[in-house]
Specification:
Number of strands: 10
Shape: globular
Helix content: 40-55%
Strand order of the largest sheet: 1-2-3-5-4
Distance between the termini: 52 Å
Structural class: alpha+beta
Largest sheet: 5 strands, antiparallel
């Protein structure tokens, strides 16, 4: 679309200008700060600060997250919030920086023993989130998580759009819809907890020996625990990159990680309803991700993408890529 690149550059300049003002407010040198990751928000690190600025003017997510952070237990390791505000329509939050790196960035350099330890520690921090009193958390969490449908019709429409785009076949839509029907049937009876909502090594900090923080709660939502559980399981069971030659040592390490994750997941997959909730959340997340990727250039390569492979596997095999885990539950 005409103007898209210019608009993106203007938004980036706006967020950087806001961040510079926040650094100045706290007596820190913005010129020495470095840009960190972030998809919906932009983050800068420097001078003992971590400053996040909403990528879009008018977004209320950062202020909501800052309020939610006040009820998170210390075991979560959420950074100390110093100040929040709105400048030029962009919400921002200044936090005390934790001296650590993103777990996703550290992951390639970790051996399998440390990877397994890291995932156990990461899930332990998520479980601390799940123990927050729901009545206290609900007014502070998002009313909905955009990765997941609110109604059966909304979920079905996503699959139908993928069908209309000639990405999913009639039979695949039918089988995925059947799995979603089981999910929606199980949902009314499911207990709710506060979920991180975007649970991933991307949103965790590693200090060289352990996971010290679970970050970025902008998508936190009250929902069944299987919402976060799905992303834990996906870390271990998602398909490997296509076209990569299997390494025996990596294959052995991956199997060990899967065994560890299976042990963590087992208490939350005791019934058919639990499994239906897991698979429903998986299908919705992958459908959202696939639609998002199809809107970008290069859509002709969709068959290689993880969301597509996850969805098609779930349509053709009971449990899809999670089948080995589900079978092991007995």
């Amino acid at each position: 679309m005409p103007g898209t690149a210019q608009d993106a550059a203007a938004r980036a300049a706006d967020t950087a200008a806001v961040a510079a003002e926040v650094f100045h407010r706290h007596g820190a040198d913005f010129a020495a700060a470095r840009r960190a990751g972030g998809r919906t928000n932009a983050t800068w690190l420097g001078g003992g600060l971590a400053v996040r600025v909403a990528g879009a003017a008018g977004s209320a997510d950062l202020r909501r997250e800052a309020r939610l952070s006040a009820v998170l237990p210390p075991e979560v390791g959420y950074p100390r919030v110093l100040e929040t505000g709105t400048t030029r329509g962009h919400q921002w939050v200044a936090m005390a920086r934790i001296d650590a790196v993103g777990l996703e960035d550290a992951w390639p350099d970790l051996d399998w023993d440390r990877r397994i330890d890291a995932i156990r520690q990461l899930w332990a921090r998520a479980r601390a989130v799940h123990r927050v009193d729901v009545a206290t958390a609900a007014p502070l969490a998002r009313p909905r998580n955009p990765f997941y449908a609110q109604t059966p019709g909304e979920a079905t429409e996503s699959l139908l759009r993928l069908h209309a785009a000639q990405v999913l076949t009639d039979e695949e839509v039918k089988r995925l819809s059947d799995a979603l029907d089981r999910h929606w049937a199980a949902l009314p009876g499911a207990a709710r907890v506060l979920n991180h909502g975007d649970f991933s090594p991307v949103n965790a900090l590693w200090n060289g020996s352990e996971v010290v923080s679970l970050l970025d709660f902008e998508f936190a939502v009250v929902a069944p625990v299987q919402l976060d559980l799905n992303e834990l399981i996906k870390i271990a069971y998602a398909p490997p990159e296509p076209g990569t030659a299997p390494d025996p040592a990596d294959e052995a390490g991956r199997r060990r990680l899967q065994e560890a994750v299976t042990g963590l997941a087992r208490p939350f997959l005791r019934t058919e309803a639990d499994i239906a909730l897991l698979m429903g959340h998986s299908i919705q997340l992958e459908a959202w991700g696939l639609e998002r990727e199809l809107a970008k250039p290069g859509r002709e390569a969709y068959a290689q993408w993880e969301p597509y492979r996850m969805l098609v596997a779930a349509a053709h095999t009971e449990g899809g890529y999670y089948a080995p885990l589900l079978k092991s539950l007995g």
